[in-house]
Design a protein that fits this description.
Blueprint lengths: L1 E2 L5 H10 L6 E5 L1 H8 L5 E7 L6 H12 L3 E5 L1 H7 L8 E6 L19 E5 L5 H14 L3 E5 L8 H7 L2 H4 L2 E5 L1 H10 L3 E5 L5 E2 L9 E5 L8 H5 L3 E4 L11 H17 L9
Parallel strand pairs: 1-4, 3-4, 6-7, 6-11, 7-8, 9-11, 9-12, 10-12
Antiparallel strand pairs: 2-5, 3-5
Helix pairs in contact: 2-3, 5-6, 5-10
Length: about 270
């Protein structure tokens, strides 16, 4: 079916999804990200592609996969792509899919591979691109799942999805979590609770990341409150040379998570770790 009007109901609905006005659906665009979505387990509701969508092997394979999944395909004129795209330069392919949904019970608290799980808790992270990068880093470093508190950026907004580069489709992500409830859940399942803080008591390299851990980060601008730090068992910091006082949140997360991965990949040698 070909759509030629900007006021078509399908396009109106897709724009609402793009803008986060429909909670149970997500809007995805771009060849690479659409490929990641098609290869995930998420149900795809509709696909839109322009009459200028490049006729390459990759694009044809993508459209063939969508047809094999019985996804409704709509061809749109090139001038309509601008009304639909969240980017300056549209690649001419857009998908609407179900929003991933997980519960705390879906998070692995016992890793069958023998490695102790690490769960990430992000509190009031307000930059969607930062959030997406952290999700990508979390998957790459072997995190079991990510909990995101209320008043945080939307993990499935177009900006966050582009930054996560597909990780948000695969990694268990739970939004609108209450921090105190997440900490209580961690303690119930015997996960040590640790937060990253500029005034943390120990360098992140001295923590024993081979034990089950809930790692908590606060917002980019304000970090965690004193009350939030109080309910968490340990605080760690990333030492750095003066006059630099802090790192970008996504950078801090990457530094700490890959140290955790390093420790979990090698036999425990330092019995003095905290």
């Amino acid at each position: 079916m070909k759509i030629t009007s900007r006021d078509n109901s399908k396009l109106k609905n897709a724009r609402k999804i793009r803008d986060g006005k429909i909670d149970d659906l997500i809007f995805v665009e771009g060849l690479r990200l659409c490929e990641e979505l098609v290869n995930s387990d998420l149900k795809i509701a509709e696909a839109f592609y322009t009459d200028q969508f490049p006729s390459t092997t990759r694009s044809e394979e993508l459209l063939d996969k969508l047809r094999s999944k019985n996804v409704d395909l709509f061809e749109i004129t090139g001038n309509l792509a601008g009304s639909l795209s969240d980017t300056k330069s549209s690649q001419g392919i857009f998908l609407v899919a179900q929003r991933p949904h997980f519960e705390l019970s879906d998070i692995r608290t016992h890793d069958l591979s023998g490695k102790s799980p690490i769960v990430l808790l992000l509190s009031k992270v307000n930059n969607p691109s930062n959030l997406g990068v952290i999700l990508r880093t979390a998957e790459a470093s072997g995190v079991s799942g990510v909990l995101i508190t209320k008043h945080s950026a939307n993990a499935f907004s177009p900006k966050s999805l582009r930054a996560s580069m597909g990780s948000a489709f695969r990694l268990p992500v739970i939004e609108n979590v209450d921090l105190s409830e997440a900490v209580a859940w961690a303690k119930k399942h015997k996960l040590e609770t640790v937060c990253a803080d500029i005034n943390g008591k120990f360098p992140y390299t001295e923590y024993d990341w081979t034990i089950p851990t809930l790692l908590v980060f606060g917002s980019e601008a304000h970090g965690l409150t004193a009350e939030e730090i109080e309910v968490i068992e340990r605080s760690i910091t990333v030492p750095m040379n003066a006059p630099v006082e802090s790192l970008n949140l996504a950078t801090s997360a990457a530094v700490i998570l890959f140290e955790a991965r390093r420790q979990r990949e090698i036999p425990k040698q330092n019995s003095g770790m905290i």
